[in-house]
Amino acid sequence: MSLTIAHHRFGTVELLKLSGRLTLGDGSSTLRSAIRSAVENRQDLLVDLSEVSYIDSSGLGELVAGFASVTSGGGQMKLLKPNKRVDSMLQITKLYTTFEVFEDESAGLASFGAPE
Amino acid sequence: MIAEPIITELRLPTRLGFEKVAMSTAASVAEIMGFSTDRVEDLKTAVSEACINAIEHGNQLNELLGVVVTLSMGEASLEVKIRDHGNGVKNEMHVPDMDRKMLGEEDPRGMGMFLIQALVDEVEYVSELAGGSYARLVIHLNVGSRD
Fold this sequence. Notes:
The complex is a heterodimer of chains A (116) and B (147). In chain A, strands 1-2-3-4-5 form a five-stranded mixed sheet. Chain A is globular. In chain A, helix 1 (28-40) packs parallel to helix 2 (57-72). Chain A has a single domain (4-110), classed as Transcription Regulator spoIIAA (2-Layer Sandwich), CATH 3.30.750.24. Chain A has helices at residues 28-40, 57-72, 84-92, 95-98, 105-110, and strands at residues 4-10, 13-22, 44-55, 77-80, 101-102. Chain A contains five helices and five strands, in the order E-E-H-E-H-E-H-H-E-H. Chain B contains four helices and five strands, in the order E-H-H-E-E-H-H-E-E. The longest helix of chain B has 22 residues, at 37-58. With 147 residues, chain B is of the alpha+beta class. In chain B, 35% of the residues are buried. Chain B has a five-stranded antiparallel sheet with strand order 1-2-3-5-4, with helices on one face. In chain B, a hairpin with a 5-residue loop joins strand 4 (122-127) and strand 5. Chain B has helices spanning 19-33, 37-58, 98-102, 112-119, and strands at residues 6-13, 66-73, 77-84, 122-127, 133-140. The interface between A and B is medium-sized, with 24 and 26 residues.
């Protein structure tokens, strides 16, 4: 299943709910476009990974590139609810310690100072 | 008791997406051998990353070339060789610098070999004198999952 992204806006924060495979070809370009759009609109990003069924090194790389892109534009990008498999990949690559990761959507949104 | 390894061999086209064929075959063999679900998932990811490396870097997306995946099912281990027509890679592992990546100072990709190393019990990269090279991945039964 290729990646689909649902967009929800909460003030200055855009919540991206990812669903499907975040891999080379399947999802990385879709996510790149969504992040580029958010950067252009000066939105902070909260990326919900709970429905990501599979992630590979390209998908991880796209999260990293997105973070660099958002922060260089003065915004913030944080992650929400990685499932067990995605969490494992974030742990192995030590991205868990560099990304801010939330288990609760409200807490994640509140961390930006955005209205819930 | 298995006296000789049982061999399964695949020939993949050099086209991104076909790594999934190797993933699912490796998963099927590992399940037959009794590996846990977590170990099977680890193997699938490692095989996928190795096949993508073979397609992109080894064969440089040349569709005239193939990638051969050989799964050898032993008594207590599963060996997967992913062979391409490239010159191979050095065995020294490049450890990605996540801080530099997050700052955009290092290519955000380039984590595949690092992931492979973390997900299987043994890995080596071999350049063959006759040309071509292969990645050799091994997982052992009775070795606990990372978690």
